Amino acid sequence: MSRPSTLRELKATGYRHRSVKDELRDSMIARLRAREPLFPGIIGYEHTVEPQIVNAILSRHDFILLGLRGQAKTRILRALARFLDEWVPAIEGCPLNSDPLLPLTHHARLTLDAKGDDTPIRWLHRDERYQEKLATPDVTIADLIGDIDPIKAATLRLDYSDERVIHYGIIPRSNRGIFAINELPDLQPRIQVGLLNILEEKDFQIRGFPVRIPLDVAMVFSANPEDYTNRGNIITPLRDRISSQILTHYPLTRDQGMAITAQESWTDRRSGVEVRVPGFLRELVEEVAIQARKSEYVDQNSGVSARLTIALLENVVSNAERRGLTTGEKKVVARVCDLQAAVSAVSGKVELVLEGEQEGAMNVARALLGKGIKAVFSQRFPDAFKPRRARVRGPQPPEESESQAAAEYRPVLEWFSAGHHLELGDDLPQPEYAKALASVKGLGDLAARYLEPRDPDEHAVAMELVLEGLHQSSMLSRERTDTGRTGYKDMLKQMLSGLGDD
After folding, report:
1. pLDDT at 151 over 80
2. pTM summary value
């Protein structure tokens, strides 16, 4: 379908001017009535953040998203462009994208006076109407708003107060669109002051020369909550002019986190090795982030980004892929030892407090992996240390007693206490790996009962998770061997061997 190319053709279509915020509002109303997804790909915000964004748009508000890192703030801001009209007309050559019915600049007015209804029209796609700026300490007023161009003034022999000598910044050039500033507190206070009139009065001043141009811009921002950052603050007058303040958050449930990680991680490698990650291992990956978000070694004011689990899962898949390429196996299943080999994805994603720095980043990362394993193990398996309930008269609830829970693990623990030990590694081919685990008496039945693996390959991984869970629950000893493998032994004998001749 051809679009009008002149003002005369545009008028013939019955075109009427509409502000950006009216466009956003009308589009939101249409999508709500049609019950369409508002922000596809944004998981976990359907009943918390999304309704607040909808309210802000329906109120025609400028708004700010406040939240810790890795909470999809930037993605949400960029998704706002889908609520704009797909195409809008503008006067050809106008630096501020003037509406043909509402010329803003000298160039637009001059063109309309000279050509009238023959004024050429260009069409702006919605993707061109979203502009974004990352706030950094070196951002200047000239970058955002504009500056006087002395060369242009001298060439055209114009006074500095003439708008034709202005070199417009990114905000005026975003006229008839959405302009986003990420990490707003990082913007210097004197630069933040320059935004006040744009937000409220829609005019701006350059080097003391007032330029009253009614900009049509929807302003949106993102920031960490000011109490959570030492880099800067949002000045009070600016915060007062931002009409809606919306708080984002991390996934409220583990299932939401797993869905985000599965959506964002790159796991389809197409390298000739098919890597499969069992469901309980995906739970374990997500549990690492959950444990990091409540660890005393991690700075909770900085937050733990969803990028941690994404990077961790990708490293787990890569380690399994490496094993397949080395052993020549076409299909491999990710293992718990792959998770331990992927610890580098955790150490760089958390900001440590003083106690964490003293422990060391890698030690804290390994501790978080251990806590994640213990949490999943505790959720899936009975507690061997649970105290026995006192006996009372009357019918008893079907609850396991202490001896019953401990009996679940007795065959496995007795196998190790008889002097056996087990070595596992991420370099073992699947047949050797599964054979070694199957040699532990009672381990296969325990893993099958509580983890419900889908096939023999997953069953072997489930057995390794049981061993690691028993170690994290202080029922088995674990150590790294000289060959880089992991050895499991009886806890008591390991402790006694450490005493030596004493």
Report:
1. no
2. 0.87
